[in-house]
Amino acid sequence: MKRLIGTVFTLLAFVAVPATAQKTAQKKATQWSDITEVVVRAPAAGPAMWKLTRGQSTVWVLGTLIVVPENLKWDQKRLARALNGAHVLITPAVSRSDPAQAGQLQALSKLPANGRLYEVLSEPVYARFEATVQREHLSINDYIRFQPVIAAGNLSRDALSAHGLSAMALYEQMTTVVRKSKVRTRRAGSYDYSALIAYYVSLDAAQAEACVVNGLDGLDYDLRTTQSMAKAWATGDLPAVMRLYREPDFLTCVLSGETTADMYQTYAIDSMTAAIGAALDTPGKSVAIVPFDDLLRKDGVLDRLKAEGVEITAPSQ
């Protein structure tokens, strides 16, 4: 079940790499699907799952958070029950890259000519970055040689970990459940990770700095809200989750560029929609795991499937 675990690395890799934006990224509220408006009911026994039906086929969809507490407790039997008798488990797209390019990609993640972060960020933004490093009792030397957005992504990862928050915990727990179920997994698609690094390198100073600010904002927000949001997710209290949930701040950078926004649309929305649609063409039951951003945003996976005539039942026990 390494594919399921690999999905997290894929997601983080994508949202940590900004687009070749034509304008500075600006944070704005996520536009959620109208489907979420009908979900106002008592919390379920576990994480919210949508039931999608077409003909003799059913797909149960589990919407997931990205970052959760490492010790998060939730009813894993809810996922196990959904997997019982399922044909396949559909997981988000994963990255593909040539292993021979690993050294090149690592080099691209560093500032050229032995540059330092304080040389490419404005004084106020670098001061905020450094203050965050100090606040989290980390070392600035671990970040100072990296390209700005890579540095901010690494800082976010390390700071969250220091607070017991992880982008791996939930998917590791799910992998254990899936392994026991013996249901085969299918990736919704894939994308070229090296192409995203190339987009990142092309950012100008203003665009990169905007993404750093978004990243620092996102880190502060995650530290304030993740515990409460994860508890609501674990109990199926979707309205509470949606009040707190917002798209990852690095995703704002991705969506600010036309090219990478199209890439995100293709691999995250189109590929998952197509994979679930294919499962709905097969009689019987399947299961899909979809991040909330892809599932519930306006014109996201649920909206697309609804437009194709799929019957969607709101989460319930």
How many discrete structural domains? 1
Tally of alpha and pi helices:
14
Distance between the termini: 27 Å
Strand arrangement in the largest pleated sheet? 7-4-9-2-1-10
* Series of secondary-structure elements, N-terminal to C-terminal: HEEEHEEHHHHEHEEHHHHHEHHE
| Percent in strands | 5-15%
Instruction: List low-confidence stretches.
Output: 1-26
Structural class by SSE content: alpha/beta
Short description:
The protein is α/β, with parallel strands linked by helices. It has 14 helices and ten strands. The strands form three sheets. The protein has a six-stranded mixed sheet, sandwiched between helices.
Descriptive account of the structure:
This protein is of the alpha/beta class. The protein has one domain (2-313). It is built from 14 helices and 10 strands. The strands form 3 sheets. Strands 7-4-9-2-1-10 form a 6-stranded mixed β-sheet, with helices on both faces. A two-stranded antiparallel sheet has the order 3-6. The protein has a two-stranded parallel ribbon with strand order 5-8. Strand 1 (49-54) and strand 2 form a beta hairpin. Helix 9 (205-234) packs antiparallel against helix 10 and helix 12 crosses helix 14. The longest helix is centred in the last third of the chain and has 30 residues, at 205-234. The chain is globular, with a radius of gyration of 20 Å.
